[in-house]
Predict the 3D structure of the following.
Amino acid sequence: MKFSTKLIRWHKTDGRKDLPWQQKKNPYKVWVSEIMLQQTQVSTVIPFYISFLKRFPNVKELAKSSEEDVMSFWSGLGYYSRARNLHKTSKLLVDKFNGKLPGSASALISLPGIGKSTAGAILSLGYDKRAPILDANVKRVLSRHEQIEGDLSKSSNIKKLWSISERLTPLDQCAIYNQAIMDLGALICKRSNPKCKRCPVKKDCLSFKKNLTKDIPKKVDKKSKPSKNVYWLIAIDKDENILLKKRNKEGVWAGLWSFPESSSKEKLRNEYQTLFKSKQKKLKSLPEINHSFSHFNLRAKPLLLNAENCMQHNSNSRKYKWIKKTRLKSLGVPSPVKRFLEK
Ligand code: SF4
């Protein structure tokens, strides 16, 4: 029996069918869910997906919303460039594609944030067309099944995996097959302790036969990440509003609202003295916040400023906002900042 037939059969009894984006499926829902699921687990994505779809039920609603609004619904999910690209693409879809996701791989790949695998998922799951995919789960299943031993991030191995995926993707029932192989990776062919005995393709899986499941995919030594040390200004006024500042369009948390930040205490002091016309020098140090990004570790030292007695503040420009803790939901605020404020 063919690889795809085994998976399609297995999916009937054991595959996932209750995920929110699988209900009344359409290309828009597939697109949003695929973008959210990049580097993020299903259980984390579900609540974000539900509230996002409630607020932005289709391309047109998304396109006419402000970036601020979109970011506030993404706040806490991380990798914010995904949300910015989703928003940018929705506008392009309205301008150039009549508000619909195009039905060809080349047109999909030309859009911001849509790669070959996401395009394959939109075409197969959203349009019921034959299109291969290669997300992290599929890479793991195929590399084990076909015994691809080297570093999977190498372009030669990615090429190999794409050609295997192309070869194994069936002409019919591609949507079920693609869902099945993703489910197999998530439920059975897990990163550690794969449940090979329950796997529908174990008979011809090379890694299972040769006892190589621990070695494939190859674990690549991650370089230790550099650290970035910054200071955060935590200013609270007499009505318990907190001062936030919109971050630049570049870098991590681009365009989100966070505390005024600087790599030097002195610069931060200059900033608030200008803002508040204040001579106050004393700032209270609060416990350090650590957050890990994919390419560096952030160590933030929060400095508390009691802005109650500051005579005047010039902080009502578009860059700054005084906000009550209870209103944080209406803004795109990174989760470490939110967590800090909740504490
Ligand atoms: S037999 Fe094991 S290693 Fe091979 S595809 Fe199935 S779960 Fe993965």
About this structure: The chain has two domains: 3-209, 227-342. Residues 141, 144-145, 188-189, 194, 196, 199, 201-202, 205, 207-208, 213 surround iron/sulfur cluster (CB under 6 Å).
